[in-house]
Structures are given as C-alpha cells and as structure tokens.
C-alpha cells in the first residue's frame, strides 16, 4: 500500500500556497443543474456529479426554481474579450504579489493555477473579478458578470500540480483562450 504524499507546504520563505481557482460566470452552474451540482456546504446529498450526472428529471423542479430566482439572465464571456479578461486577471494578481502559472478562459468559466497567501486569496480574487467585469461590461453592458462564489482547491503535491497545469492548458482544444507563465511547470 502506497503511503499518501504530504501536501505541498507553503514555501518557507514567503508562506504562499498553490491553488487551482475556478471563476464561474453568472448563471452557468445552478442548483438542480442536469450536469450535477452541490448544495452549499454539502448540506444535502446529491446523486451524481458532472462526470456521472444525476438521473434525468430528478432535480428539474429545483433547477427551474433556481432559473426563476435569477435577477439577470445567464452570462457568457464573449470570445472577443477572452484575452482582455485574462490580462485583467493577471494584472490584478501580479500587482498583489500572486504568481499566476497558467490560466484558461471559456464562455462560462476561467481556470487559474496560482500561488498565493491563503488569507488574501479571497480578497484578491474579488478584486480580479471586479477588474475583469469592467472589461466585459464595456462589450456587453450586462450588470452581473460573475457568480458570487469561486472554487478553490489546494494543490496537494507536484503530480497534482502537473495534472492541473495540463488540464488548464488542454482547454485550448475546446476553443478557450489559454495563457502560461514563461517559467516552466516544475
């Protein structure tokens, strides 16, 4: 039996940790979604996930209610601003001493692999979303651009980091805008 690897510890000198952050555009992953979903804090057990969706029709009522409760229509980031949104996200993070290894942007969401201080990640992500929203508003005029929450996963070890790096850059095959740092992934 293999012994589990210890998580990638914060760097001794700077205390930062690696994260896989996913920012979702407004209205793209709602409770009751046929692709699978999670309730806040996993309060309710939900059958399936995006790889193995729940039985068809099981959560249709919840999904319909979620759509009706939306204040604005669902938002998709226009392809014409993918690069500008990426640059806005990178600018804010680098200004705040957050190292961005790579990112991908599609219409519904953005993936980032970055190294940040745990206590400031939420605040810096809010600032980055705000700056990217300004770029999107100039094109679409929509008020709500981003979903309220973001997904954040701590990178556990180097193989996990490499898999995440490849996963993010593979989105280019699906038409996403991708960017990577000049430094190679370890």
* Rg from alpha-carbon coordinates: 18 Å
Give the helix tally.
4
State the distance separating the first and last CA atoms: 26 Å
How many E strands?
Answer: 5
Task: Record keyword descriptors for this entry.
single chain; 186 residues; alpha+beta; 5-stranded antiparallel beta sheet; 30% helix; globular
Give a brief outline of the structure.
The chain is of the alpha+beta class and 186 residues long.
Q: What this model shows, in words?
A:
This protein has 186 residues and is α+β, with helices and mostly antiparallel strands. Helices cover 30% and strands 20% of the residues. It is built from four helices and five strands, in the order βααββαβαβ. It has helices at residues 60-68, 82-95, 121-140, 158-170, and strands at 17-25, 99-105, 109-116, 146-154, 177-180. A five-stranded antiparallel β-sheet has the order 4-1-3-2-5, with helices on both faces. α2 (82-95) packs antiparallel against α3. The longest helix is centred in the last third of the chain and has 20 residues, at 121-140. The radius of gyration is 18 Å and the shape is globular. The mean pLDDT is 79.
Topology:
Blueprint: E1 17-25, H1 60-68, H2 82-95, E2 99-105, E3 109-116, H3 121-140, E4 146-154, H4 158-170, E5 177-180
Antiparallel strand pairs: 1-3, 1-4, 2-3, 2-5
Helix pairs in contact: 2-3
């Amino acid at each position: 039996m293999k012994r589990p690897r210890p998580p990638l510890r914060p760097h001794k000198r700077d205390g930062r940790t690696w994260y896989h952050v996913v920012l979702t555009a407004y209205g793209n992953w709602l409770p009751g979604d046929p692709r699978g979903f999670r309730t806040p804090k996993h309060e309710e057990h939900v059958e399936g996930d995006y790889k193995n969706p729940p039985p068809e029709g099981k959560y249709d009522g919840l999904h319909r209610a979620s759509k009706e409760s939306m204040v604005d229509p669902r938002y998709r980031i226009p392809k014409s601003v993918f690069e500008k949104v990426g640059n806005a996200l990178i600018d804010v993070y680098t200004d705040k001493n957050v190292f961005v290894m790579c990112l991908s942007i599609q219409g519904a969401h953005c993936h980032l692999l970055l190294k940040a201080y745990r206590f400031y990640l939420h605040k810096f992500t809010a600032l980055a979303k705000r700056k990217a929203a300004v770029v999107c508003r100039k094109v679409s005029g929509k008020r709500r651009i981003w979903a309220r929450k973001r997904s954040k996963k701590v990178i556990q070890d180097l193989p996990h980091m490499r898999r995440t790096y490849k996963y993010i850059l593979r989105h280019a095959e699906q038409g996403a805008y991708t960017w990577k740092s000049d430094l190679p992934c370890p």
